[in-house]
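User: I'm new to structure prediction. If I give you an amino acid sequence, what do you actually give back? Let's try with this one:
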Amino acid sequence: MPRFGAAVIEFQTVGRVAWSGRERNRMAISVEELIFPTLECIHIAGFIAAIGTTAIVDFRILDLGFQSQTSAQLAKSTSMWMLGGLLVAIFTGIGIYSTDPDMYYHNWPFLIKNASLVIAIVFHYTVHRKVAQSGGASLGGKLAACISLLLWSSVIFGGIFIAFIAGGL
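Assistant: Good question. You get back a string of structure tokens that encode the predicted 3D arrangement of the chain. For your 169 residues, that looks like this:
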């Protein structure tokens, strides 16, 4: 039974959509059921901002684009987007985790994602930052950009496989 004031869409067996809260034996979509997918969309958007801005700097270090600006200029102009996206992704991730902690805790892609995330954050704010500020034209700089891309890719693929690989530990 839906709570008072909650908007409920009920699907009847004939395919019509009715707005009602009193009839039984129908599948109802309530506001609470939209929290998880909304959090997930915001979580993904946060990662897009964070990883996308980091990838822009990495591609510049690798001389694969953005030739009109140095890596230091790009790093400076994208740093707030990176930090904001990262904070959004972390806080929405905590909300997603809280929906089923046991499932996530025993899911090895989730554990890989979080280990990669911690390593990527530490790497980003130590090695990557120094390389980007120095211009990153050296072989070491290019190696650091490749490691950065690999770490952030591990976060992405870990997140993708959470849904496909259940259990594991």
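You can read the tokens as a compact description of the fold. Here is one thing that stands out. The chain has one domain: 36-162.
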